[in-house]
Design brief:
0% strand, 5 helices, Cytochrome Bc1 Complex, Chain D, domain 2, mainly alpha
């Protein structure tokens, strides 16, 4: 009988411990998402949608991570971004964070590294200069 009681206590303790870990980490994740969402709404949502196929003055950012640059059908990209996509630019968190700090500079550096001509400008003139803000937005976009 004593072994059964100890088994129940161990299970109960493990369950409570697991629940506490989940509860302790959930606010951190939602705080980061909340900051990213706030920054997205403030700086990005006027030009970009998160709905697939719904372009605004900027392309939809739905399913951005892992997508080759400049590949949304029906959106007219800048020559510079089209060239980067043709040269193999595929969006991931690290690349997007650098891009958000200075879109034109990032695309030109990417093309130079790829050995491709880098002419033209970028339609995106907005910049997120603070790395922590770019990271928050990138993390938020990873959910879409």
């Amino acid at each position: 009988m004593k072994l059964q009681h100890e088994g129940k206590r161990s299970f109960f303790t493990a369950t409570i411990g697991f629940a506490l870990v989940i509860l302790a980490t959930a606010p951190m994740a939602s705080a980061a998402d909340s900051e990213g969402e706030t920054l997205f709404k403030k700086h990005c949502a006027n030009c970009h949608s998160l709905e697939p196929g719904k372009n605004r003055s900027g392309p939809s950012l739905a399913d951005l991570m892992g997508r080759k640059a400049a590949t949304i059908d029906g959106y007219r990209y800048s020559k510079l971004l089209r060239s980067a996509g043709e040269a193999g630019l595929v969006w991931d968190a690290e690349k997007l964070e650098i891009y958000l700090a200075s879109p034109k500079r990032y695309l030109k550096a990417f093309l130079k590294e790829a050995g491709k001509p880098a002419s033209g400008g970028s339609k995106m003139t907005f910049r997120l200069k603070k790395p922590e803000e770019a990271k928050a937005v990138t993390t938020y976009l990873g959910d879409f």
